[in-house]
Design a protein that fits this description.
The protein is mainly α. The protein has one domain. Helices cover about 55% and strands about 0% of the residues. Helix 4 crosses helix 8 and helix 5 packs antiparallel against helix 11. The longest helix is centred in the first third of the chain and has 29 residues. The mean pLDDT is about 95. It is a multi-pass membrane protein. It is found in: Endomembrane system. One of its GO terms (molecular function) is iron ion binding. Its main location: membrane.
């Protein structure tokens, strides 16, 4: 794909997502939903900018590791629509387990904490992602590379998975009927971000909820979620939010959940 086309398409997607944020802000204001807080939103935007820069910074590292792993692929599957579909589903399956382990393994939680640190649920929270998470990506998708799925399909599927999750971070959409429990929905993801006792460590799927149903981590939304980690407010400083998990990890103070 031509680089100019990619840049243009990416720009259009960004403007579309930005327009949705504006619409959600207006909805929150008119309905008095209080889904946005100025300091929290500015922190989200700062973290988003840092995350985009980190992707550029760590691209060479990711490419090198993935290129090295590809030498040991068991198969070399052709780039066909069916293989892309398999890649998309496989990426979501791997994402489910990576996401679930990120809530169970303290070092991985150090990376993931920033995403659960907001006391609000809105579209800008979706890109509240750790600047160092790009260091983990090659190892997360390593099994898919080793079985021979095309690297470009893996990368595209991972990108689409994260893009889909953008739409899950909102209170503006209620339950979606029969789709609940099959696909990840805003309702299911509100549960995931809840620090309520019955909501902790539930609904890890990125696109599909079938993994959660199969492996016993599915929880429907029954009460309003209390967002954030169990210890409450952390900070609105993006540097504190990004690195707090690592500081707490090395201090041995990670006795909180999100």
């Amino acid at each position: 794909m031509d680089n100019n086309f990619r840049a243009g398409f990416g720009g259009i997607v960004f403007l579309f997502l930005l327009a949705l944020v504006v619409v959600e802000i207006i909805w929150s204001w008119r309905k008095d939903k209080k889904a946005y807080n100025t300091k929290d939103t500015l922190a989200n935007l700062a973290i988003f900018i840092g995350f985009q820069l980190s992707k550029v910074l760590f691209f060479g590292f990711q490419y090198t590791i993935m290129g090295y792993l590809s030498q040991f692929s068991l198969f070399h599957l052709k780039s066909t629509p069916l293989v892309f579909l398999i890649s998309f589903v496989a990426v979501d399956f791997v994402y489910y387990w990576y996401h679930r382990l990120s809530h169970k393994i303290k070092l991985l939680w150090a990376f993931h904490l920033v995403h659960h640190s907001s006391l609000f649920m809105n579209l800008t929270v979706s890109y509240r992602l750790n600047w160092l998470s790009a260091l983990l990506t090659p190892f997360v998708v390593a099994p898919l590379i080793l079985i021979g799925l095309p690297f470009e399909f893996i990368a595209a599927s991972f990108g689409l998975n994260l893009l889909y999750q953008f739409f899950l971070h909102t209170e503006a959409v209620g339950k979606l009927g029969f789709i609940e429990g099959i696909l990840a929905t805003p309702s299911a993801h509100r549960v995931h971000h809840g620090s309520n006792e019955q909501y902790i460590d539930k609904n890890f799927g990125g696109v599909f909820m079938i993994w959660d149903r199969w492996f016993g981590t599915y929880q429907p939304e029954t009460i309003k979620a209390t967002y954030g980690v169990t210890t409450g407010f952390i900070s609105n400083n993006p540097f504190v939010l990004v690195f707090k998990g690592f500081v707490d990890y090395f201090k041995g103070k990670m006795d909180y959940k999100g």
